[in-house]
Amino acid sequence: MTDQRPLDGKVAIITGGGSGIGRATAKLFAKRGARVAITGRTEARLAGVVEEIAAVGGEALAVAMDVTSEDSIAAGIARTAEHFGRLDIVHSNAAQTGLMHEDAAIADMDLAFWNRTFATNLTGSMLCAKHAIPHLLKAGGGSIIFTGSGKGLGGDLDYPAYGTTKAGLLGLSRYVATQYGKQGIRANVIVVGLVMTEALDENMPAEAQALMREHNLVPDLGTPDDIAEVAAFLASDQSRYVTGASIVADGGFTAHSAVYADMRRFMAMQGEGQQ
36, 88, 91, 211: least surrounded by Cβ within 10 Å? Predict the structure, then answer.
């Protein structure tokens, strides 16, 4: 292992690997030396990412896997371990992001939508851990990484189903870390802030992006590559002393007073009045 390739010899599986954070993470893991299985509902949609990785000398496998089905998860993880001969890293990243307009007021919540969101985001993550742990133990330990969200840290006016599942991941990771830590398995959550994927950039009004940028403590909004860097650290032995943790990668969005942006504007106005 070198500093440039800290994942040499390791095998990773990434759910939701066809786009966004999953795609960026798969490419970075491969660049850092890992052999990577990328999962999604259909292998055809993953082919482009596999080709991108192969084009730069990496090794990747597309695996059809539905994270709402335990049988599909068990089969996908088993196929990965059989194909590569081991499993060291799990990045449970897949999430329910479609039909988010249905994720509104609790009093109006559709139970079927609520259950689908939990099946994908929380139960699916638990099942990925359940079926990966035996393979990680066989390899002598490993790292499980859950993609969380700032929506899981506090209440909001929208996305209660999504936010509640992401809050649940915080507890899930601590239980995995506690139950299997002495056997060499670490588990952590990346608490993700607003990440500008291409799709989000196209659909989120510039005014809304500007509002979010005001509340960030860094100049820019996040990108999938920013989150991939955190995932790669947690996947590597460089983070061997980090487990049961929630690593917040949100540009400082949740680190300050709720009236931060308003106070900045107020103080600017006060300064102008004194000049």
Answer: 211
CATH topology of domain 11-274: Rossmann fold (3.40.50)
Query: Phi, psi at residue 203, to the nearest 5°?
Result: -105, -15
Tell me the per-residue pLDDT of 78-126, one tens digit each, with 9 for 90 and over. Answer: 999 999 999 999 999 999 876 677 888 999 999 999 999 999 999 999 9
Confidence class for position 34, pLDDT limits 50, 70, 90: very high
User: Does the reported pTM lie above 0.85?
Assistant: yes
Q: Classify each residue of 53-87 as buried b or exposed e, where b means 16 or more C-beta atoms within 10 Å of its C-beta.
A: beeeebbbbbbbbbbbebebbbbbbebbbeebebb
CA-based angle 74:142:17, to the nearest 5?
55
Q: What is the pLDDT of residues 159-203, one digit of tens each?
A: 999 999 999 999 999 999 999 999 999 999 999 999 998 767 776
- Which residues participate in catalysis according to the annotation? 162
C-alpha 45/C-alpha 171 separation (Å) is 32
Q: What Cα–Cα distance (Å) separates residue 257 from each residue in 106, 216, 218, 253, 263? A: 26, 11, 15, 9, 9
For the chain, the domains span 11-274
The tokens for 82 are 């059989």
Question: What whole-number distance in Å separates Cα of residue 209 and Cα of residue 221?
Answer: 8
